[in-house]
Design a protein that fits this description.
Layout: H1 4-12, H2 35-46, E1 51-58, E2 61-67, E3 77-78, H3 83-96, H4 120-124, H5 127-131, H6 150-155, H7 170-184, H8 188-197, E4 206-207, E5 221-223, H9 225-236, E6 240-241, E7 244-245, H10 249-256, E8 279-280, E9 286-290, E10 294-299, E11 304-310, H11 315-326, H12 339-350, H13 366-369, E12 373-375, E13 383-391, E14 396-403, E15 406-413, E16 418-422, E17 435-445, E18 448-455, E19 461-469, E20 472-479, E21 491-495
Antiparallel strand pairs: 1-2, 1-11, 3-5, 4-5, 6-7, 8-9, 9-10, 10-11, 12-13, 12-21, 13-14, 14-15, 16-17, 17-18, 18-19, 19-20, 20-21
């Protein structure tokens, strides 16, 4: 560490770079990749339900990018635990500026939040232990924004000697964020803004905070898919960006190398070791990743970065496609131009789409259910009533739901995503109070209306199935992914 600090401190003196431009674009062949092979890769990803956005960078050039409508390049996407890798970067910068030290104890920064009689293991816990998910906890401390705090973290028992027991721990990353804030007087978001976000031209990043105003650190960051690719490219370039050293190269090496073991399954990308808030991968790659498939995969040997946003249940399946389809296509030298294959690839990337609601455009019973208000008994989901109406010359079906005392109007097109802003109601999905939401509708049966909603800055899709029988409606709701059950209890309502 003594050797590291002078190197890091030299870095601090470098003048902050001006805002960067978007990453340059290139054809796959010019960067040593067959467009036909890239098309196979994209087709394989398209078979996995729930992909939202893809950016592939080779030799610093974007060679493929696409979004599954209604997702697009313009909207940000919640990163969940991919946020951790950004928090790691803030720690590295704070160390470079002499604000933190890898061997600082946690209690040094939060003496007033410590238990009355801290255990020996808690006293021994260091910044290094937080970074490599080896805090000594057996059970993870609370992580919800209204619960997580330095006090709740320090109150958690520490049965293992820190540094000896790997336990994935989102609260530990929160503590890193809290330590950066204590040491610098700025939230991680504000601290990174001039040092990382602005130089990379990552515009308007959003980072949720806990009830004390501390950036959550372990989750809560939103950026664009291309921003994820830029972040990965920065790490691929050992912290250098457009001739400026934004991150110390030695920190990048330490953060992405194997710092601790986390399993022994050679076929699992979650068993290849863990760095400082980065996962080691198979094929000598590393990555940041987040719940439901937010990926920043960096392949140093192939000079390649893959950024993906999604809402998938099987995270390993997406990585398998990268290894099985993309990795073999990465050749060391440029390939002959192939305009026809490039055109096919671009066409595929331009027409990616989340599967909309399935069924007919209308039903014989439509006149019997439209413009009627169906009321539900009191329920835990806080759904009070619903109404279906036509709008836009019958091109748009609007679902109006009264949720928790408020009316939410959700326009839906037939195989045409209609956008609005609203809460994504029902269960744990309601943690987002105001989201860009896109909706489609269809009639899978004469008595049934299906409505599919996508909160397009989140992983979440919600399928509502409304079945009408005279004056009665049954509503079934199922999300594509969730931290709890994806299905909600069925509700039965009656016409008012």
């Amino acid at each position: 560490m003594k050797k590291l600090l002078p190197i890091l401190l030299l870095f601090v003196l470098v003048e902050s770079p001006r805002a960067a431009q978007p990453l340059p674009r290139s054809t796959p062949e010019a960067q040593g990749v067959s467009a036909a092979a890239m098309l196979e890769f994209v087709n394989a990803l398209d078979q996995i339900d729930g992909l939202h956005g893809l950016v592939v960078v080779r030799h610093g050039q974007i060679i493929a990018e696409g979004w599954w409508a209604p997702y697009d390049a313009e909207h940000q996407h919640v990163l969940y635990s991919l946020s951790k890798s950004f928090t790691s970067s803030a720690v590295g910068l704070a160390i470079a500026e002499g604000k933190l030290n890898l061997n600082d104890t946690v209690l040094k920064f939060f003496p007033n939040d410590a238990p009355a009689d801290p255990s020996a293991n808690l006293k021994a816990m260091r910044v290094r232990d937080l970074l490599m998910m080896s805090t000594g906890h057996q059970d993870e401390p609370p992580t919800a924004p209204d619960e997580i705090s330095p006090k709740s973290f320090l109150a958690q028992p520490v049965p293992h000697l820190p540094g000896t027991h790997f336990k994935y721990n989102t609260a530990a990353t929160f503590m890193l964020s809290a330590m950066v804030q204590k040491a610098t007087g700025q939230t991680v978001l504000d601290y990174l803004r001039p040092r990382l976000f602005e130089p990379l031209a990552i515009e308007h990043p959003v980072w949720d905070t806990n009830f004390q105003g501390i950036s959550l650190g372990g989750y809560g960051l939103r950026v664009h898919t291309e921003d994820i690719a830029k972040f990965g490219q920065l790490y691929l370039q050992h912290g250098s960006w457009q001739g400026k050293q934004l991150l110390p190269a030695e920190w990048v090496t330490m953060a992405t190398m194997r710092q601790t073991s986390n399993g022994s399954n050679p076929d699992s990308d979650w068993n290849q070791g863990y760095g400082f808030q980065f996962w080691r991968c198979r094929h000598n790659a590393f990555r940041g990743d987040g719940a439901f498939g937010q990926y920043c995969v960096v392949m140093p040997e192939q000079d390649t970065v893959v950024a993906i946003n999604s809402g998938v249940k099987d995270l390993q399946a997406v990585l398998n496609v990268i290894w099985d389809k993309l990795l073999p296509a990465l050749q060391p030298a440029a390939l002959p131009a192939n305009p026809d294959a490039v055109a096919q690839l671009k066409a595929k990337l331009a027409h990616l789409e989340v599967s909309p609601a399935q069924g007919a455009a209308t039903s014989p019973q439509a006149d019997q259910v439209l413009n009627r208000k169906f009321v539900f008994p009191a329920n835990d989901q806080k759904i009070e009533s619903l109404r279906l109406t036509w709008a836009d010359d019958s091109k748009t079906l609007t679902l109006t739901v009264r949720f928790d005392g408020k009316d939410i109007a959700l326009p839906c097109g037939y195989h045409d995503w209609k956008q609005t802003r609203a809460p994504l109601f029902l269960g744990q999905l309601a943690q987002f109070p105001d989201e860009p939401i896109a909706g489609t509708f269809a009639c899978p049966a004469d008595d049934t209306c299906a409505i599919k909603l996508c909160a397009i800055e989140t992983p979440y899709h919600l399928l509502l199935t409304l079945k009408f029988n005279g004056d009665q409606v049954t509503m079934d709701a199922e999300a594509n992914v969730a931290f709890g059950p994806t299905k909600r209890p069925q509700l039965i309502g009656r016409a008012e």
